[in-house]
Amino acid sequence: MILRLPYAHGCITADLRGLRCQELRPAAPRHALSVAALVEAALDRPAAGPALAALARGKQRVTVLVPDATRKASLPVVLPLVLGRLAEAGVGLDAVTVLVACGTHPPAGEQDLAALVGPLPAGVRVLQHDARDESALVRVGTLASGEPVRLHRAAVEADLLVAVSSVQHHYFVGFGGGPKMVFPGVAGYREIQANHGKVIDLASDPPRRHPRCEPGVVEGNPVAEEVLATARLCPPGFALLLVAGADGAPAWAAGGPLDAVFPQACEKVREWFEVEAGPFRRVVVSAGGFPTDHTLIQAHKALDAACRFAAPDAEVLFVAACDGGAGSPAMEPFLSDPRAAAIVARLAEDYVQYGHTTLRLVEKTARFRVLAKTELQRELAERLGMRPEPDVEAVLDRWRDEDPELPVGLIAGPPVYPRRRG
């Protein structure tokens, strides 16, 4: 078997001949209906409630929430269809705002933003959410902790809020997309940290990661449950949810009220992206190429998925460019002292979400031998417990020499997860 592993804007060829390999693939279709056909059906024949065009009639201000570049939602195809339904309802283009739900991610540059949303008609305003811009935030309620919840005024003050997102597993919120477009997508920085801080179980002595903050888990997950509850403070009137197929393009779509369609999307993700396999003592995983392997923060998610199929003594060959570095200055204090106990103690005192990312990473490098084909600085990779490997073929040659019969688990496409029971 010869595989092309996505890496940055290209691929790395991996010659796996002579090894016993099992590729872990989603059950999702590789070639579904066209994206346009899927989206048009979801807009015009929603799973619940009226079609988008009917819902938009008489509305004076419409905001369309869209994900940033770290989430693939085929926006250059999807947005013209959404805007077309709004125009059909009599909504003027100058009454439409496209709001990019960046959460705490940095805004895109002009060229990257244009590539993200595609060509838009004149008059449509495009904004990028900045969680630290206090002037753009409006209070809508409080978290269970009493922390005020503020959301971007373009979402709160719209007569109709439309949310477009892809839904996929999330390594501690259960699922990405859906309600996360509202919270944390367009929320204030403080409340985002307060919510994500629930991933640390302070009731435990010593504090630990909460055991229900896992992919595919919503019930009993304190972060996910609060995300759902908070999104209902400013619910999208129409949510267009997409689930990717095996080739990364949307292969399923549904529209309607968020509470009606989000559970359907989650079930489709479970059906397509949870598999029975492993455990393996050897695993190869690609983080998917740009943009999902551009930073360590994003690339780590593929490693997290792969390690769930790994035996305790496994070697995991992690192919992720990370040519954008760690991904956030907020991660730096944790990178300087990446001991798990020190990170947990620091997070228990003052939660920073990318500190939690660092924790998840060093937990894996402590349990598994992570061999990294990466552009990260060698010293940083080693400090985090990874072993930089500039030559993928050299690793595969060693595996052939040591034991060619030892099974190898491969994730060369979209991340998949072990099937959950109950």
Task: Explain briefly what this protein structure is.
The protein is α/β, with parallel strands linked by helices.
Description:
The protein has 422 residues and is an alpha/beta fold. It has 2 domains: 165 residues, LarA, C-terminal domain (2-enoyl-CoA Hydratase, Chain A, domain 1, Alpha-Beta Complex), CATH 3.90.226.30; 238 residues, LarA, N-terminal domain (Rossmann fold, 3-Layer(aba) Sandwich). It is built from 14 helices and 22 strands. The protein has a 6-stranded parallel sheet. A 6-stranded mixed sheet has the order 6-5-4-9-14-15, with helices on both faces. It has a two-stranded antiparallel sheet with strand order 1-2. A hairpin with a 2-residue loop joins strand 1 and strand 2. Helix 1 packs parallel to helix 3 and helix 11 runs antiparallel to helix 12.
Question: In the CATH hierarchy, what is the superfamily of the largest domain?
Answer: LarA, N-terminal domain
Looking across the biggest beta sheet, what order are the strands in? Answer: 3-21-17-18-19-20
Q: How many angstroms separate the termini? A: 35 Å
How many E strands? 22
Estimate nothing, just give the exact number of structural domains.
2
Structural class: alpha/beta
Low-pLDDT runs: none
Quaternary assembly: single chain
Q: Based on CA inertia axes, which overall geometry fits?
A: globular
| Portion of residues within helices | 25-40%
Secondary structure elements and pairings:
Elements: E1 2-7, E2 10-15, E3 21-23, H1 35-44, H2 52-56, E4 62-67, H3 75-88, E5 96-101, H4 110-117, E6 125-128, E7 137-142, E8 148-152, H5 153-156, E9 160-166, E10 168-170, E11 174-176, H6 189-196, E12 200-201, E13 208-209, H7 222-231, E14 238-244, E15 250-256, H8 258-273, E16 274-275, E17 280-286, H9 296-307, E18 310-319, H10 332-336, H11 340-349, H12 353-367, E19 369-373, H13 378-383, E20 387-388, H14 392-402, E21 408-411, E22 417-418
Parallel strand pairs: 3-21, 4-5, 4-9, 5-6, 9-14, 16-22, 17-18, 17-21, 18-19, 19-20
Antiparallel strand pairs: 1-2, 7-8, 10-11, 12-13, 14-15
Helix pairs in contact: 1-3, 9-12, 11-12
